[in-house]
Structure to design on (241 residues):
């Protein structure tokens, strides 16, 4: 039986059932629609995310397997632990979401074309302004007292479900510091995993693993049902321990 690729209705926020996602390419569920805040919130609420390249139509994904990090299994080796103790960085939450997304799009280590296109940056900034998208920033102050953003990450949160979108670094360990800080922050309110969407060598080195889509959706449903304390995502300075 052939697989069907769904075309979204511009006048409806409805997505096809997750189990209808293609196996090749893995997880492609639908094309079209838009990047309105309403559609993005609906997508992430179902564990669906957009991912496409320039000149492509909007593509919506729900891969199987799915990559996650169990926060209790974040891998912090001895070298990284020493770096944390001697950290030269200041870490903040939601202090400069726009700059983080820009640096993620233009990350110097990225050799292929970015998927963080201008319309995606605009869409996620709108989500941020509504309280659904958040960033961790890593700052460094040099010997001349010049402070610059040297690492960070951003993602989308639907209640207790956090789906990481992208990260960047300009100095050693900066993206690792951002990921570990996010994990510690979420763990303070009993959230036990971060959605990584797709596995890559960096995430695997940090302890990410793949689980079946069915298992992921059960975990995602439980996390999404968890309400966070008022002010949890308010901009502030964070401490990495």
């Amino acid at each position: 039986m052939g697989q069907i690729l769904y075309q979204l209705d511009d006048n409806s926020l409805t997505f096809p059932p997750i189990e209808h996602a293609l196996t090749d390419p893995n997880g492609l569920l639908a094309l079209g629609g838009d990047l309105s805040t309403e559609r993005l919130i609906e997508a992430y609420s179902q564990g669906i995310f957009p991912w496409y390249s320039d000149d492509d139509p909007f593509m919506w994904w729900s891969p199987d397997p799915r990559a996650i990090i169990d926060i209790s299994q974040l891998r912090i080796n001895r070298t990284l632990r020493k770096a944390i103790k001697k950290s030269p960085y200041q870490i903040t939450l939601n202090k400069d979401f726009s700059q983080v997304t820009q640096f993620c799009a233009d990350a110097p280590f990225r050799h292929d074309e970015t998927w963080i296109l201008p319309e995606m940056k605009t869409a996620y900034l709108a989500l941020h302004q509504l309280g659904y998208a958040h960033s961790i920033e890593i700052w460094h102050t040099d010997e001349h007292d010049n402070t610059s953003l040297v690492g960070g990450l951003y993602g989308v949160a639907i209640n207790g479900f956090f789906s990481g979108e992208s990260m960047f670094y300009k100095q050693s360990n900066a993206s690792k510091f951002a990921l570990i800080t996010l994990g510690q922050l979420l763990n303070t309110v009993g959230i036990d995993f971060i959605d990584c969407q797709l596995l890559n060598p960096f995430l695997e080195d940090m302890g990410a693993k793949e689980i079946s889509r069915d298992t992921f959706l059960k975990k995602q449903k439980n996390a999404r049902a968890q309400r966070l304390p008022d002010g949890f995502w308010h901009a502030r300075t964070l401490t990495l321990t």
